[in-house]
Amino acid sequence: MIKEQIQQLSQDIFNDVVANRRHLHANPELSFHETQTSAFIAGKLDELGLEYQRMADNGLVALITGDKASGNVVALRADMDALPITEANEVPYRSQNTGVMHACGHDAHTSSLLGTAKILTGLKSQFAGTVKLIFQPAEEKLPGGASLMIKEGVLENPKPQAVLGQHVMPLIDAGKVGFRAGKYMASTDEIYVTVKGKGGHGAQPQMNVDPVIITAHMLTALQQVVSRFADPKNPSVLSFGKVIANGATNVIPNEVYLEGTFRTMDEKWRDEAHRRMKKMAEGLVESMGGSCEFNIVRGYPFLINEEKLTATTRGHAEDYLGKENVLDLDIWMAAEDFAYYSQVADSCFYRLGTRNESRGIISSVHTPTFDVEEDAFKISTGLMAYLAIRQLGN
Asked: pLDDT tens digits, the chain, 394 residues: what are they?
């Protein structure tokens, strides 16, 4: 059976996948600067005899078409960019680029998809249809590489009936995967605010317009957008992670600068929340004698896993791994630019377990100590190959 063949092939290429991952991990590149990463991927595709097209500068798209006749198409996506984080892990494959680290597992995604490509290339005579491989840059930075590749036609010629994405999850043990149908990840918007007043001596507050006090009231009031205007059944998060009031113990500054994020899972409410936040902030600040510049940079949409596709994909995963190794996921208020694919095509974004408590591999993504249990690659490549073949109707 083809399942057993895929499982064997995934074991055969395991060491190569690990080697590729370690190379990528040691040589991370930031969003929109993945030139060497792209060249590495291109070289691996050349070795497989696969032609590819470049998109969004560093992105690559390749096709693997089975020898049997079928017009069905499924797309598999992996991202390739790293984060501006200094790695703290003392491992042989530690980042060689100071201040840059694969702290979100994109090295694992790319090496896994390269492994999947090798498996599928070896099985071309046994399946019908076309698998589109999407190696995507710039997931970590707006406007997101997915949006750029979609604009350049990555979901056309041929058009896939489904798009599948696999992402590491350090909360799940290696050897297991997780699925959630319907709304899964949040939209994300960046908020930049400047509250202006009139600074002066801290001992003479009556002569100043204190932007620090105004900002404190504004921050508290803005939480009402979530607590009193949002439908409780619709998850929403408003957080401010940077507040700069550059005064002193006895100096009231002229202005306060803030940065934050707003996340939710409903586009209509998202637009309404934007209007409410801006109106509330500007009105409150003005009422207290100051002025406010309230800017919202619209980010990724929310990610939705198409119900029917996710149900069938999960079933195929259970067939491949066993039901005991396929878990339910809760909603996740982080954001992912895979959401752009999910807004325009039937999509399924699932999680690959990479945790190993016995080895201390437990750190969250986007942290200096993040790492993955490499035994996860024993299933990551074969599972994606199996899901693709089954989705094509084989």
From this structure: 899 999 999 999 999 999 999 999 999 999 999 999 999 999 999 999 999 999 999 999 999 999 987 889 999 999 999 999 999 999 999 999 999 999 999 999 999 999 999 999 999 999 999 999 999 999 999 999 999 999 999 999 999 999 999 999 999 999 999 999 999 999 999 999 999 999 999 999 999 999 999 999 999 999 999 999 999 999 999 999 999 999 999 999 999 999 999 999 999 999 999 999 999 999 999 999 999 999 999 999 999 999 999 999 999 999 999 999 999 999 999 999 999 999 999 999 999 999 999 999 999 999 999 999 999 999 999 999 999 999 999 8
pTM of the model: 0.94
- On the 0-12 / 13-18 / 19+ scale of CB atoms within 10 A, 375 is middle
**CATH architecture observed for domain 189-298:** 2-Layer Sandwich (3.30)
Residue 38: C-alpha distances to residues 107, 276, 282, 289 (Å): 12, 42, 45, 53
**Where are the domains positioned within the chain?**
2-184+302-391, 189-298
Across the chain, which distance is largest between two alpha carbons, in Å?
Answer: 83
Phi-psi region of 190 (alpha: psi -120 to 50; beta: other; left: phi over 0): beta
4 is catalytic: no
CATH 3.40.1830.10 holds for 2-184+302-391? no
Would residue 139 show up in a list of annotated catalytic residues for this protein? yes
Say if residues 368 and 103 touch (Cβ distance below 8 Å).
yes
Catalytic residue, chosen from 29, 79, 87, 139, is 139
Per annotation, catalytic residue among 29, 34, 79, 81? 81
